[in-house]
Amino acid sequence: MKKPQYIDRLTSRKVIEPVCYEKTMFFLYDSKIGRWISRLLSRSPVFTRIYGWIQKQPWTRSKIVSFVNNHNICTKELKRPLSEFSSFNDFFTRELLPTARPVTPGKNVCVMPSDGFYLVYPNVAEFGEFVVKSKRFSLPKLLGDDALVKKYDTGSMVFSRLALFDYHRFHFPVDCVPGEARCINGYLFSVHPIAMKDNFIFFCENKRMITELKTESFGDVLYLEVGALSVGSIIQTFTPGKKYSKGEEKGFFEFGGSTIILLFQPNTIQFEVDLLKNSRMGLETRCLMGQALGRSLRE
């Protein structure tokens, strides 16, 4: 199996993605017995709880420095020095200095909600044509709400996949007033490309939370956090009904890697040209929170 590739937005170059726990990933998702084991673990809340508990133990601090060095994580961006983290999970949910992620200004500019690997689709209906040959991705299954499906099924969609080494706090992409976050319980399949291949139905089966954002420039926007293997906890830190500026924190994922999905109503957003180009080639674009995602078509 080939290692996943992506486009680095800062350099526009194609890059081979470093795979955390590479041998384990290829065993679990590129062998028959491995796939059987991964599905068993993904359906077991016991495994997730135990794994999450382990990452919160003080002795896991010993992994932090080597993890930082192996993945070239910039410590100058951190609010706290490495010595102050109490566990690996504490480091995993790290906060950054405000200057580490500048937010693109402009009321008509929507920004990246998180660090991650991005795919954009101007029309949800095109998603199957771009990526999912089997067309098993289902918006009704993903949202679990007929009214929301009708509202967004001809709109635009964004995927942001967070790798294990990423900054795992997620933010509001536009000025907005968020509603309540609704939880849809499910399994915890991995969302890494090695695991996913064309099987995007996993997004519809994984644990996820859904929040609708009320905005002036982009209409209503649907914001989903999707859990993944070893990421049982999606923590919301926002207050429903309160006004937020783009770039303000919405919440964070505890240990693991996961995905943010944004859904826009029809004719509300024009994605940036580079994101469209790369997505049409089936290539993710590596982006940072606060960079421009698209422009409002309403202004």
Keywords:
299 residues, alpha+beta, ten-stranded mixed β-sheet, three-stranded antiparallel β-sheet, 16 strands, 24% strand, globular
Q: Compute the average pLDDT.
A: 82
* Whole-number tally of structural domains: 1
Secondary-structure element order, as H and E?
EEHHHHHEEHHHEEEEHHEEEEEEHEE
Described by strand count, sense and barrel closure, the largest sheet is: 10 strands, mixed
- Please give the share of residues in helix: 10-25%
Unreliable spans are 20-31, 129-135, 186-204
Backbone structural class: alpha+beta
CA radius of gyration is 18 Å
Secondary structure tally: strands: 16
Give the number of helices.
11
Instruction: Determine the oligomeric state from the structure.
Output: single chain
Strand content: 15-25%
Tell me the overall shape: globular
**For the terminal residues, how far apart are their CA atoms?**
45 Å
Catalytic activity: a 1,2-diacyl-sn-glycero-3-phospho-L-serine + H(+) = a 1,2-diacyl-sn-glycero-3-phosphoethanolamine + CO2
InterPro entries: PS_Dcarbxylase (IPR003817), PSD-B (IPR033177), PSD_type2_pro (IPR033179)
Enzyme class: lyase
GO molecular function, one term: phosphatidylserine decarboxylase activity
How does this structure look, described?
The chain is α+β, with helices and mostly antiparallel strands and 299 residues long. It has one domain. It is 25% helix and 24% strand. It is built from eleven helices and 16 strands. It has helices at 22-29, 32-42, 45-55, 64-70, 88-92, 127-130, 139-143, 146-152, 193-196, 202-205, 273-280; strands spanning 5-8, 13-16, 109-111, 116-121, 156-162, 169-171, 177-178, 182-184, 208-214, 220-226, 234-236, 249-253, 258-264, 269-271, 284-287, 292-296. Strands 1, 2, 4, 5, 7, 8, 9, 10, 13 and 15 form a ten-stranded mixed sheet that branches. Strands 3-16-14 form a three-stranded antiparallel sheet. A three-stranded antiparallel sheet has the order 6-12-11, with no helix packed on it. A hairpin with a 4-residue loop joins strand 1 and strand 2. It is globular. 38% of the residues are buried.
